[in-house]
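Design job #97: recover the sequence.
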């Protein structure tokens, strides 16, 4: 039996393309055809998560392939990490709407997201190494 490996980044291109199309296509339609009220603002955050998750998907797959871990990252882990990228961008947009975003806060929020992912990976690794 061949050992498990991290999927290649090219395996995620169709999913990334679909997320980018939904995210940025929806943003284009949202900006051009809606008024800036509450409901479209929440749709904006959702579409930001979709679009930037699509951008982050091949990047996370490449990083997990380039720097392998033990056990190797599964598809679910790479998808979760790309959603973290989208959630990070949407969080920064939300903070910018409130005019509280600064470099230090953006760095702190990014470090929090990295720490949460690291803790999740540590928990997964401890459960697989029983």
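Job complete. Output follows.
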């Amino acid at each position: 039996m061949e050992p498990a490996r991290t999927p290649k980044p090219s395996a995620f291109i169709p999913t990334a393309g679909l997320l980018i199309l939904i995210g940025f296509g929806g943003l284009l339609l949202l900006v051009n055809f809606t008024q800036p009220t509450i409901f479209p603002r929440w749709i904006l955050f959702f579409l930001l998560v979709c679009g930037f998750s699509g951008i982050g998907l091949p990047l996370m797959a490449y990083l997990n392939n380039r720097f392998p871990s033990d056990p190797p990252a599964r598809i679910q882990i790479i998808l979760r990490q790309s959603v973290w990228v989208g959630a990070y961008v949407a969080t920064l947009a939300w903070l910018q709407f409130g005019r509280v975003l600064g470099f230090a806060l953006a760095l702190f929020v990014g470090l929090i997201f990295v720490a949460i992912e690291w803790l999740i990976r540590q928990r997964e690794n401890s459960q697989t190494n029983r």
